[in-house]
Structure formats: structure tokens, C-alpha cells
């Protein structure tokens, strides 16, 4: 029986190497590649054709959800296992909707992660700790969607509910920029920035920009760097 081939993707070198080391000890597993960002990950998936790609949700350039969506659109053979630091049913539903085969918290034990990978290779799905067949996954997704209050995306903007301009504004907010600074950078009026920020807060169902950043971070839509997210709205 051939080894299960794996690609490991995470922008934190120590964590990524830990996953590589842990899975390399598992009999029948072979790590064929590593990546630290979304673009490189997608290139390796296309070039190496691994059985399973273990992806961090929150990656630079292209996040894990978007990579999953592209792999699904291109009908690539590789099955996607997403890892997250913020595990909940809503995010698991996003992952399943994108086409992921599994969605797991980063604090998962190595042996359990290996078990999830084997389930995925066998054609099953693992969401919220449950091993599901395709039909069971469809039923689970339907039940979760009925209980969800928020939309998942707008056409052309996969897996976040914001327009492209709103995503630009949100990215600036994550960097700690004021509305005035955002207006200057994007070449739009101060009032237009305020309107976009108001729309972002409404779509996320939060009260201030700090909560909006946290909400987006948990879903892997933005990347937090050394910034101040506590600046007040202007």
C-alpha cells in the first residue's frame, strides 16, 4: 500500500515543523512539502498532488478557506484539512461550504490528527469532531445553515460577506489606520470611509472596529501584524 502523501502549510515555522515531525512518525505517512503562505501552498498542491493538504486557516496572501475553494473549483485530487486556533460550528460550516474534508482545532493531539487524515483519505469528512459520510455531511450542513443568521459571501468575494472595497478598508483598520489615513491611502472621502466602516460593523453584527477585527481574524479573513486595533472611529 502506498504512503499517504501530505503537504503541511502554516506561517509559524515552529508550529509547522512540529506538525511535520509528528506526522512523519506515523507509519504510512510521507510529508512531501511545506509552505508558509497561501500562494506557495496552492502552487505545491498543483505541482505535488498530495493526498492531503493540512492548512492553517489564517495564512498570508490567500487564506485557507480561499485555497480550499480554489482547489475545489479546479477539481484537484488533494483533500483539504483545515487547522484553526478558533474552532466553532460556524467556522466549520464555512470550511465545509468551501469544500474542506476536515476542520480541526490546532490543539488536537498528534495521534488524533493522524486519525482524521486517515478518515479523510478513506473518503470521509470530519467536522466539529464528528466523522461523516458525504450524505451525513450534507445533512449536517443543512442543519447548521438553518441555524445561522449571517450570509456567507457575496458573489465574487468567497467566504467573507464584504465587498472588495470593504475588505480594503478592513485591512487598513487591522493596521491601526484612522479613517483619515484610510481615506488618503485609498483616495476616497472621509465620509465614504465612515460609511464603509459602518457597513462592516453591520454585516459582522459587532459594535466597534476592535470587535470587527477580532471577528475577521477568527475566520482567517485578515492577518494581524504589529498594529493597534484600538483606535476609535473618527
Report the CATH superfamily of the largest domain. Response regulator
* Assigned CATH architecture of the largest domain: 3-Layer(aba) Sandwich
Q: Low-confidence stretches at least 5 residues in length (pLDDT < 50)?
A: 149-158, 226-234
Kindly identify the CATH topology of the largest domain: Rossmann fold
Strand order of the largest sheet: 2-1-3-4-5-6-7
Strand content range: 5-15%
- The helix count comes to 10
Shape type: globular
Structural class: alpha/beta
Total strands: the figure is 7
Proportion of residues in helical segments: 40-55%
Number of domains: 2
How would a crystallographer describe the biggest sheet? 7 strands, mixed
What's the CATH class of the largest domain, please?
Answer: Alpha Beta
Q: Which value, in Å, is the CA radius of gyration?
A: 19 Å
Task: Tell me what the structure shows.
This protein has 234 residues and is α/β, with parallel strands linked by helices. It is built from 10 helices and 7 strands. It has a 7-stranded mixed β-sheet, sandwiched between helices. α4 (89-98) links the parallel β4 (79-84) and β5. The relative contact order is 0.10.
Summarize the structure.
By secondary structure, the chain is an alpha/beta fold. Helices cover 48% and strands 15% of the residues.
Task: From the structure above, extract its key features.
alpha/beta; seven-stranded mixed β-sheet; 2 domains; 10 helices; 234 residues; globular; disordered C terminus; 15% strand; single chain; Rossmann fold; Arc Repressor Mutant, subunit A
Amino acid at each position: 500500500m502506498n504512503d499517504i502523501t501530505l503537504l503541511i502549510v502554516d506561517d509559524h515555522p515552529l508550529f509547522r515543523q512540529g506538525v511535520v515531525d509528528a506526522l512523519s512518525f506515523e507509519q504510512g505517512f510521507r510529508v512531501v512539502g511545506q509552505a508558509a503562505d497561501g500562494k506557495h501552498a496552492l502552487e505545491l498542491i498543483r505541482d505535488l498532488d498530495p493526498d492531503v493538504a493540512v492548512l492553517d486557516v489564517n495564512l498570508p496572501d490567500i487564506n485557507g478557506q480561499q485555497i480550499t475553494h480554489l482547489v475545489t473549483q479546479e477539481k484537484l485530487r488533494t483533500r483539504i484539512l483545515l487547522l484553526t486556533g478558533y474552532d466553532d460550528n460556524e467556522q466549520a460550516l464555512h470550511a465545509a461550504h468551501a469544500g474542506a474534508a476536515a476542520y480541526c482545532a490546532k490543539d488536537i493531539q498528534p495521534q488524533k490528527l493522524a486519525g482524521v487524515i486517515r478518515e479523510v483519505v478513506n473518503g470521509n469528512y470530519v467536522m466539529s469532531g464528528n466523522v461523516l459520510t458525504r450524505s451525513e455531511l450534507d445533512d449536517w450542513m443543512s442543519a447548521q445553515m438553518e441555524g445561522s443568521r449571517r450570509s456567507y459571501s457575496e458573489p465574487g468575494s468567497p467566504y467573507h460577506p464584504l465587498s472588495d472595497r470593504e475588505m480594503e478598508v478592513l485591512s487598513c483598520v487591522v493596521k491601526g489606520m484612522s479613517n483619515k489615513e484610510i481615506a488618503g491611502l485609498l483616495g476616497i472621502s472621509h465620509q465614504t470611509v465612515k460609511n464603509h466602516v459602518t457597513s462592516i460593523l453591520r454585516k459582522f453584527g459587532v459594535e466597534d472596529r476592535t470587535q470587527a477585527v477580532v471577528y475577521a481574524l477568527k475566520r482567517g479573513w485578515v492577518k494581524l501584524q504589529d498594529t493597534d486595533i484600538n483606535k476609535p472611529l473618527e
